[in-house]
């Protein structure tokens, strides 16, 4: 199995790449897979001037919840790229359903390749994608290459809480990294504990139901689906106890 597959599994909280073929089934009831489209829209509206000519790149766009909602609320063009063909198909259907298919382009692809060829965007988005592009330093530097000078980067990630054992960076460590990378933190929205726990409960219920259906159909693979439910729960617990989920708006400095 390649590193790309391992990171893909990890980005969707699967501990084993063996789960990859089942992820579209397990996640079929969810549209939003990580980031809050509303928080991203609020940050863009508050700080960037957008028009139909504004071009956004949504890397690892999942099922297109962020892209489609941005296109329909702000009327700008969005290109979304994700490695799972089923997710891209779903995103295209949603764009058509909301009447924004002319503004949205969805493509199946590996974002490690896309960051080399996709350039000159006004805003690049990386929502709840973890370390698919590498370390945090490398991720920021690759994202910078996709936007114009003075353009913006939106990232959904997390701050490690004080004294946590999380692998995440603390807010101070992020700020140091931004300074070194010559990007400015313009604004941030922290997810509230209440919003997070109700979302977690709702999503866990949907996933558990689909995992139980798969267990009935494929009893020999029950261990796989049980492990998915367990790792989802562990991720929810980590998000509630060790990390503060945050959406960050960064501006790429001209200097
Ligand atoms: C937690 S989901 C977040 C999806 C979306 N950004 C959102 O916030 O709703 C992580 C996404 O990363 C995608 N992904 C993982 N590795 C990838 C890669 N190398 N290239 C493109 N997409 C990738 C997965 O398919 C999945 O859709």
Q: Please trace the helix and strand order, writing H or E for each element.
A: HHHEHEHEHEHEHEHHE
Number of strands: 7
What Rg do the Cα atoms give?
Answer: 18 Å
Ranges with pLDDT <50 over ≥5 residues? none
Biggest sheet strand order reads 3-2-1-4-5-7-6
Global structural class: alpha/beta
Q: What share of the residues does DSSP label as strand, in percent?
A: 15-25%
- Shape annotation: globular
Taking the alpha carbons of the first and last residues, their distance comes to 41 Å
Query: Portion of residues in helices?
Result: 40-55%
Give the integer mean of the pLDDT values.
94
List of distinct ligands in this structure: S-adenosylmethionine
- The top level CATH class name of the domain at 35-191 and 244-249: Alpha Beta
CATH topology of the domain at 35-191 and 244-249: Rossmann fold
Known CATH architecture of the domain at 35-191 and 244-249: 3-Layer(aba) Sandwich
Q: Summarize the biggest pleated sheet.
A: 7 strands, mixed
CATH superfamily of the domain at 35-191 and 244-249: Vaccinia Virus protein VP39
Describe the fold and architecture.
- The structure is a single chain.
- The chain has helices at residues 3-11, 23-26, 37-47, 65-74, 85-97, 111-117, 136-144, 171-181, 193-217, 222-241; strands at residues 55-59, 77-82, 104-108, 121-127, 147-160, 183-190, 243-252.
- By secondary structure, the chain is an alpha/beta fold.
- It starts with a helix and ends with a strand.
- Helices cover 47% and strands 22% of the residues.
- It has a domain at 35-191 and 244-249: 3-Layer(aba) Sandwich (Rossmann fold).
- It has a seven-stranded mixed sheet with strand order 3-2-1-4-5-7-6, with helices on both faces.
- Helix 3 packs across helix 4 and helix 7 (136-144) crosses helix 8.
- The protein binds S-adenosylmethionine (SAM).
- Residues 4, 7-8, 11-12, 32-35, 60-62, 65-66, 82-84, 87, 110-112, 127-129, 132 line the site of S-adenosylmethionine.
């Amino acid at each position: 199995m390649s590193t790309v597959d391992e990171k893909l599994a990890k980005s969707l909280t699967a501990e084993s790449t063996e789960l990859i073929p089942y992820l579209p089934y397990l996640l079929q009831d969810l549209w939003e897979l990580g980031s809050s489209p509303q928080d991203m829209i609020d940050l863009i509206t508050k700080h960037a001037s957008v028009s139909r000519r504004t071009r956004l790149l949504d890397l690892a766009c999942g099922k297109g919840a962020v892209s489609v909602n941005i296109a329909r609320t702000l009327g700008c063009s969005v290109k979304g790229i994700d490695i799972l063909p089923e997710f891209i198909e779903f995103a295209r259907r949603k764009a058509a359903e909301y009447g924004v298919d002319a503004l949205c382009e969805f493509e199946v692809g590996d974002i490690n390749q896309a960051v080399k060829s996709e350039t000159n965007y006004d805003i690049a988005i990386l929502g709840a994608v973890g370390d698919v592009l590498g370390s945090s330093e490398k991720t920021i530097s690759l994202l910078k290459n996709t936007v114009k000078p003075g353009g913006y980067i939106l990232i959904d990630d997390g701050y490690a809480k004080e004294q946590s054992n999380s692998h995440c960076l603390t807010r101070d460590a992020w700020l140091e990294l931004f300074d070194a990378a010559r990007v400015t933190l313009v604004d941030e929205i922290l997810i509230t504990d209440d919003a997070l726990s109700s979302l977690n409960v709702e999503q866990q219920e949907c996933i558990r139901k689909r995992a139980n259906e798969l267990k009935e159909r494929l009893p020999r693979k029950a261990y796989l689906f049980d492990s998915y439910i367990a790792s989802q729960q562990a991720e929810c617990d980590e998000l509630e106890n060790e990390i503060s989920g945050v959406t960050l708006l960064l501006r790429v400095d001209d200097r």
